[in-house]
Amino acid sequence: MIFGGALSGHRAPLSRRVQCLPYDRHVVRRNTRTAGYALQLGWLVIYCTELECVSFQAIRAFESDPRAAQQLADLDFKRRINALVRISREHCQPSEHLEEWLLLWEKVSSFAEERKALLHNPMMINVYEDDHGNFEMARELHTFRKPSSRFDGKSMQAVVDAVRKAVTYSRAAFRLL
Predict the structure, then answer these.
(1) pLDDT on residue 33
(2) pLDDT surpasses 80 at 24
């Protein structure tokens, strides 16, 4: 029974991924659900570039040596965030605002892997088969380094929401330091 589980409401555990199909840009234009994924990824790019901008501004503000600031700016995202936390501690006086700033960037660092996975891997249409021979299609993003790591619409939206909140708080917190 082809797609019997998906159509009949039967949800047996999916035992294996059978096929992985790349997303086609023509499908994205015709399917509003698919377009939602593109919109989520677009917002993620916008929010991540905002975070990058705040991190660069803070590094320039806190690091007095321009060469050292440039070296920090050239680091990959997660290492740059860790360096920003370190120089923030060195530069700023201990305060409630500093603690909030540091917690914010530690949270940003914690979702750096998800950010990287979403921005550097393609969306796929995956076909799964359960133990009863039923097939189900799912729009997901799988990482190539960790194929077991996958993002559906809800998990993608959770990352987008977390990054959006981080952008809002980072701008406000930077002004208060």
Answers:
(1) 55
(2) no
135-142 vs 14-22, strand pairing mode: unpaired
- Cβ distance 166 to 49 under 8 Å? no
Length of the chain as a residue count:
177
Instruction: Return the closest-CA partner of residue 118 out of 153, 170, 82.
Output: 153
Tell me the domain boundaries of the chain.
4-176
17 pairs with which residues across the strands? 128
Instruction: Kindly tell me if the per-residue pLDDT of 84 is higher than 90.
Output: yes
| Token pair recorded at residue 95 | 């305060």
Token code pair at residue 159: 């990352």
Contact 98, 92 (CB under 8 A): yes
| Tokens (6 digits) for 166 | 């981080």
The stretch 54-66 carries a mean pLDDT of 91
Confidence of residue 71 (pLDDT cuts 50, 70, 90): very high
SS3 17: strand
Backbone phi, psi, residue 21, to 5°: -115, 135
- Look up the pTM and report it: 0.70
Give DSSP secondary structure letters for 102-143: HHHHHHHHHTHHHHHHHHHS-EEEEEEEETTS-EEEEEEEE-
Give 139's strand partners.
125
Separation between Cα atoms, residue 105 and residue 92, nearest integer Å: 15
